[in-house]
Amino acid sequence: MPDDGKAAEWKVGMSSPQVKELQQLLKEKGFFTYPTATGYFGPITEQAVKAFQASVRLPATGIVDDATYAKLKGSLAANAAMKIGSRGNEVKVLQQNLKLLGYFKYPEITGYFGVITQDAVKRFQQANGLSATGVADARTLQLIQNAMRHPSATSVKPPQANVLKIGSRGAEVSKLQQNLKQLGYFTYPKITGYYGTVTATAVRQFQKEYQLPVTGAADGATIAKINEALKKQAPSYPPASQGTIYLTIGSAGDQVKQVQAKLKQLGYFTYPEITGYYGAITADAVKRFQNSAGLKATGVVDAETYERLTGQAPQRKLDVIELVADASELLGKPYVWGGQTPEVGFDCSGLIVYLFKKQGISLPRTVATIWNVGTPVSSPSVGDIVFFNTSQSGPSHAGIYIGNRQFIHSGSSTGVTISSLDNSYWKARYLGAKRY
After folding, report:
1. Which of 310, 352, 362, 379 is deepest in the core (most CB within 10 A)?
2. 55-96 pLDDT per residue, tens
C-alpha cells in the first residue's frame, strides 16, 4: 500500500510488496487461508477481501479501496480473535450462537472460552471448510453470523451427530459407561473407554426402559435422555442412620471412609490413604471381602455387606402407616413418564422415590437400580416394594405393598392406583419383594 495509507483500488492481477502486506493482514483476521502471503492479488485474495468487506459491512467488491484498507488497519485490535482464556460478553454471544447452531453443548452460557467452547468452534470450522484451529477469528465469526442469518444456506453445514457405537473408544465412551454405571445399566467392573458388546447391551437396556429406539448405539437422543435421567436421580445412598445403604463407584463421603478404614483393617483395602472416594480399588476390595464372607461379590456395599463389614445394622426408620397414608393421597394422579412430583404426575419409580424421600430415605431413580439395592424378603410386608417383569428384561415395574395382597403403583394406563398381586396380569409377572 502507499506510504500515506491510500489504497488506490488494489484488485485482481496486481502484484507488489503492498499486496503481500494486504494478504498478511487478511491472514491475521482469518480470511486469507492460503499457506503463505504471495504478493500476488489473485482469486483467493479477492475472495478473502470480499469476505472481510462483508464482515465489516462494506460493499463486497473484492477491490481494496481506501475504506477497506482503513478498516483492515484500524480494526485489527478491536476484532481480536477469541481463544482459550478469553472471557466476556463477546464470548457469551459466541457460545449462544454456537448453541443455536447445534455445536455448543454445555448447558450454560459461561462467558469463558475453555476447551468446550474451543471444541465447538473446531467442529463448526470443520463443517464449514475452515482450518480447525479452535480460534474464533474474524473469518469464523463472519461465517457464524452468516449461518445465524441464513440457517439453510448450503455453505453452512450442520454438525454431524457424534454417535457412539461398537468400536468407538475414548473419553466420551468412558463418560457414557460411567453414567450408565451410575444409573445401574453398565455392570462391567471397570470403565474401559471401549464401546463393546457389554456397553451396547447396557445402552439397549436403557433405551428399552426409556422408550427410545433400541439400537444399542448411543446417539444424541440417547445421551440427552441419559443426562436427563442423571439429573433426576436421587442420591445413590443415604446417611448411615437410614435404612438403605448403597455405596458404589462414584460414591463419596464419610460412609466411604468408614468402609475403606474397615477394609484396610481387615487387609483388603491396600491403597495407602483413606480417600473417601469409592473407585475401582475400593470396589475390588469390597468384592474380595464379599467373597470371603460368602456374599455375592458385586463390589457394591449394600445393607448386608455394610452390616457384615462394620458390625452395624442400619436402622430402618420407615413409618409404614405414614407411607401408606401419603401414598393414598396420591391416588388418581396421572402417569407421566419421568414424573416424580404430585404437580406433574408420576411414573412407577418416580412415585416410589417421592414417597420414600418423604420418609427420609433416598432411593435410586430407576426400577432396575431400586431392585439392586434392596434386601430380598420371602413374602412382602407393608412398606416393602414389589417388583414385576413387564418387558422381558428383568425388573421394569414396581409398587409399594400396602397389605392384604395389594400394592399401590403408578400404571401407564391407570395412573396412581391400587392393584392386587392376585390379578392374573401381575401374578404372572411378579418377581419378588425387597425391603428398604
Report:
1. 352
2. 677 788 889 888 888 887 764 444 467 888 888 767 887 888
Whole-number Cα distances in Å, 281 to 73, 105, 270, 300, 335: 60, 32, 8, 12, 41
Cβ partners under 8 Å of residue 396, min gap 6 = 209, 367, 368, 388, 389, 390
Look up residue 377 and give its DSSP letter. E
397 classed as catalytic: yes
**Residue 138 and residue 372: Cα distance in Å, rounded?**
54
Residues in the chain: 436
Q: What is the pLDDT of residue 21?
A: 85
Distance CA 23, CA 36 (A): 9
Handedness of CA 260, 264, 266, 269 (dihedral sign): positive
For the chain, the average pLDDT equals: 80
Query: What are the CA-CA distances from residue 58 to residues 26, 100, 141, 239 (Å)?
Result: 15, 27, 16, 66
Residues 227-238 have a mean pLDDT of: 58
57 as an active site residue: the answer is: no
Q: Would you state the pLDDT for residue 245?
A: 61
Give residue 340's identity as a one-letter amino acid code: Q
Considering the candidates 1, 25, 327, 348, report the single residue annotated as catalytic. Answer: 348
Helix (H, G, I), strand (E, B) or coil at 107: coil
Tell me the whole-structure pTM to 2 decimals.
0.34
For 187, 301, 369, 422, the CA distances from 248, given in Å and listed in that order, are 11, 7, 11, 36
Residue 238's pLDDT band (boundaries 50, 70, 90)?
very low
> Which among 409, 410, 416, 419 is annotated as catalytic?
409
Residue of 123, 139, 333, 397 marked active site: 397
Q: Is 150 a catalytic residue?
A: no
pLDDT tens track for 158-187: 444 468 888 888 878 888 888 888 777 887
